[in-house]
């Protein structure tokens, strides 16, 4: 009997359905498993609950993103400068009909062009659409089979409502959460939610589960986005749309706010410092000049102030940083890391914690047999993945053995192949499994003993089987004995029967049915003492986090009937135990060690069981045997402040849910950790987005995890994260390198311009257009070359840079100020001499400005060569290690001379032709900059030597 609900009495979706019995769930939802809902009831619920879809919240529009680019304080100042420059041109045009530059609004147009270019660069970086939610939507299948009004019918997935009875079978992707009401051999892969590759067996429970049961252990429930691997079932829908477990993940994704990266924060700080400093100097110049010369020079002082404002802003810096980050992404691709968001390149250099999922990230995501134990001995098995290459090393003899010499071991391998429904295939250099990964591992194991599935299946044709069920916990096949006339294997004597029954399954249940054991070609009675030995071996493997199977066989006179399984599977011959696990990637242990040497703490966060997580973490060196592991149930009971205390001590989290992963990352960030989070499943997406660097797996990763990430590992290799982190450190180091180069010049420009009226010179030494040329070309090209400077070989042997550190940290600020002052002293000295010389009869009275312009530009070339290293002299460095720098210096010098000696350029940039003597003087003064920086290195070296 289906209940009739009014809109306000419809059951709430947000209930702990896994704690309910089937009867209580059906009663609460007012539905019947045989007849389902009627059309009217379904329509009523549809109106109340809404469509079964993931909802997206509105984000910033493209227009909002574009407008946000022009809120940068340096761009605002440039806009103001451009407007004032345009107003001055209008005043000049009205007063005299022309402007000093000859071309009206030249400076205004140039400045606005730079502003627009920088704005567009920022816009292009931010307009990558958030596609994580769109990828989540794809996980819902388009149609589903339901029972409504007692009839089986198909409806569109968005039209499902709580209380609907859905029918699922192998191959389906579920599109709603529900509780199982009927089922047979149902197995579901829930990696989308839990991250674990193995299928989960689902059952009907007469009693509900505990409230705090993790998602991976809710065997009475099915979830949206998961895949049915085997069996069939009938389930009642308990949650749709945003009220599903997948919907909760979508909600968490939308709640995560994107924060500024360290580089973005540092650039904001840089802008604030430069603009504030510029305004202070402008005020000093205007006030000082007015007090000294009166209001008559106000327009000239305003022009000087405009030049100072343009000089203080490193217009080329955003473009240089963007190109540097882009070059970093190219280098990272070569190291199997694809960067999705440019700022992530530099951000990697600050990472001091890597939170990694286990399955597919630290491990191979492939079941691999690690150990085999028979009553004849214990054998460790080498090899990786499903490739049938490896050795059997006898634990007692400490040496490899040939399996054909040992009857029980060879018989065990035969059984693993013949009691098997999987297939092992090779594509190029890759070995893949079609079927269950557990069965696939047995095929790879046999391949290591040169036993091929295709050959054995021809020799021993399958003539019957008793399939695996969750109740039986075992599988048996009946094969006809070898009829090929070939030499029989070492374990099978000539007197063997025509048929053989091969069995594998739960070790305890298989052992109960065994009366004998194999030794060589002989079969002996199995004693209670030997059974105890087998159980001890089974327990030992389980404690080492191995998944254990027992294998046995039995000769048969005839093929048993399908109903005779219980009788046929008695009196078996025990062969041994096989222990397998999703083994660690071989290269990860070294990567973890490298992380620790670099001051980076690796943390495992997994949905797998605690014992498995502990074993893998110990093998990789993430934890020691005595370290505490935090489980999902324990974590659930902790408040956020308590969790923030725990994260300092815990390096492995097991059986956690998506909410837990997000909380862990947030807790680490509260402790001022800079967190990279790796993951491949849908369940990882919120934590990936919350982390400072989200790293998705390229091969096994879902679309959702990739779209939520900043970086994608193309080879799913944890070691590639370490390589990418190294590149991030190199990028940040080079950014600091060219920032000190660019800003040292800018400070020199500002002081030089400010000094002109204060030392009694008339006119502006540098117009805005010339300053833009210096900041974009003569500074920009060498800066780009410095961005590809080779890495320091010891860069991964020191701690990561603090994400909170200022851009001026570690003496960078003092270097910029010091070099700026030296720049200005050299240039002001030249300017004073050149101004006096220009006043001589027959000399061009404006030539002094071109000399100042040329000296500042060419001095930067020497600075670039010296700035490659803070400690080594230029003569000590390999000149061929950065050919880009020499090319940039030569090209920039030629371009600067063209501005002086090519008439059209000279007219456009308001320069004057210099005599040979004037050019030589400019070159001599310019070289002083190189000499000073090299002299500083010698003094610093002597100081350190004396100090030690």
Automatic annotation (TrEMBL):
InterPro entries: ATPase_P-typ_cation-transptr_C (IPR006068), ATPase_P-typ_cation-transptr_N (IPR004014), ATPase_P-typ_cyto_dom_N (IPR023299), ATPase_P-typ_P_site (IPR018303), ATPase_P-typ_TM_dom_sf (IPR023298), ATPase_P-typ_transduc_dom_A_sf (IPR008250), ATPase_P-type_domA (IPR059000), HAD-like_sf (IPR036412). Pfam families: Cation_ATPase (PF13246), Cation_ATPase_C (PF00689), Cation_ATPase_N (PF00690), E1-E2_ATPase (PF00122). Coiled coil: none annotated. Its main location: membrane. Keywords: ATP-binding, Magnesium, Membrane, Metal-binding, Nucleotide-binding, Translocase, Transmembrane, Transmembrane helix. One of its GO terms (cellular component) is plasma membrane. Residues 16-90 form the Cation-transporting P-type ATPase N-terminal domain. It is a multi-pass membrane protein. Belongs to the cation transport ATPase (P-type) (TC 3.A.3) family. Type IIA subfamily. This is Calcium-translocating P-type ATPase, PMCA-type.
